[in-house]
Amino acid sequence: MTKIAPSILSADFAKLGQEIEDVEKGGAEYIHVDVMDGHFVPNITIGPLIVEAIKPITDLPLDVHLMIEDPDSYIPSFAEAGASILTVHQEASVHLHRTIQLIKDAGVKAGVAINPATPAEFIKEVLPDIDLVLIMTVNPGFGGQSFISSSVEKMKKVDRWRKELGLNFEIEVDGGVNTSTAKLCTDAGADVLVAGSAVYNKEDRKQAIQEILDTTK
Ligand SMILES: O=C(CO)[C@@H](O)[C@H](O)COP(=O)(O)O
Ligand SMILES: [Fe+2]
């Protein structure tokens, strides 16, 4: 079953509680939280304080996407704030295996993200250690960008490795996912679709989520 993870990056931050409640009622399965530091990506967004503030208002897992340099220094604070899944970028961690262990030691599910220009091979060694692979389908930093279709082959490759190695991590895709691109991803093995603008730019969030899911059937 495909899961939709609405990205609150495209929500109205002045009424974030209502925006989260809306997608929870609309059938979302994760709340995707985009953390950007102005260094790893050219934008600054959310810190642990916001994660802590939204944790009590939703029953959904908080899927925290760390687009930050030096993720090891911030893993404990995001874990304490209530992250359910902490995803770090392969490109931002020199000792990725150690970073993954830090996440797990904090009692949180571990994810690893790769940018469109990063080969899937760069994370193959750590696949047995993680709960989620996040394949970026845009260059990270902003919502509302266009889907980069070369990432679809990468999804297929990671899905093939998952089967060959008998692993059960989830494959999540992020960036430009909408009613035109969702099926390309689910056909390629994606389980979790992050959708920011395709959900939050529509008035009826439940309908937006359902329309994306309908295209994948
Ligand atoms: O991580 C990111 C962007 O860096 C994403 O999670 C975006 O927030 C997705 O937004 P859309 O492309 O769906 O509008
Ligand atoms: Fe994201």
UniProtKB/TrEMBL annotation:
Q: Which cofactor does it need?
A: a divalent metal cation; Fe(2+); Co(2+); Zn(2+)
Q: Name one GO molecular function term.
A: metal ion binding
Q: Which reaction does it catalyse?
A: D-ribulose 5-phosphate = D-xylulose 5-phosphate
Which residues are substrate-binding? Answer: S7, H65, G141, F142, G143, G144, D174, G175, G176, G196, S197
Pathway membership: Carbohydrate degradation
Q: How is the cofactor bound?
A: Binds 1 divalent metal cation per subunit.
Q: Which InterPro entries match?
A: Aldolase_TIM, Ribul_P_3_epim, Ribul_P_3_epim-like, RibuloseP-bd_barrel
A Pfam family per the record: Ribul_P_3_epim
Instruction: Check the record and name the HAMAP family matching this protein.
Output: RPE
What is this protein called in UniProt?
Ribulose-phosphate 3-epimerase
Organism field: Oceanobacillus limi
- Please name the gene that encodes this protein: rpe
